[in-house]
């Protein structure tokens, strides 16, 4: 497949969907000229995120996954593979969701499985992790809190994903806010999870995030591209920006797995309590 130009965006996207689509048109046009192959946008790019994790009074407008907004993004994407987050409508339910698309249409889809704090009051929970094929190789998607759980990324890696697109609307700590963003507990965890999930599965990881403020939440930014050894290849800080890295995904993943093959060398028969809830709490 050769070298892939991977870009992960840190940026602010609010409730105005038309404005977001207009903004994305400009971003994608510019990045197409810069020959970006894979663009990972934040969670809740279309419609914004809830403003309070503990008591979400209002929720973003939920979109039809086959509706005009997604179709417009497909037309904008052209040859680029784009992962984007939005609130998805499914009958009476809404999900925090992500879709991966190109000009040829939707390639993959994910509904956020793990829900922090009171997010269940605004969204239903997804129930699966599935990788899918794209022009830039096999990809799996996670949405913010999903990446806290090693099993999420591992399930996608075992399904053949060589790249993880991790879309976030990840805020600074709600309960223990630091005066400086780099000292914030959630800022440290956000980076730690990105590097750990890449290294333990020996995959490339592209991590996007919201920036700015929505309601009571202050988002971290910190978009990055991580190599299969857990090394950060490109990153942004707390303000908006783009992390871009050129990487031969297959070559680097194969090289990481040449001697130590984490997926193949698991001892599954010893993990006796993976699906047990005893002693948890």
UniProtKB/TrEMBL annotation:
Q: Give one Pfam family.
A: CN_hydrolase
Tell me where in this chain the CN hydrolase domain is found: 4-249
**PROSITE patterns for the chain:** CN_HYDROLASE (PS50263)
Does the keyword field hold DNA repair?
A: no
State the source organism's domain of life: Bacteria
| Keywords, alphabetical | Hydrolase
Carries keyword Hydrolase?
A: yes
Q: Which GO terms describe its molecular function?
A: hydrolase activity, acting on carbon-nitrogen (but not peptide) bonds, in linear amides
What is the name of the protein in this document?
Carbon-nitrogen hydrolase family protein
Biological source species: Nocardia colli
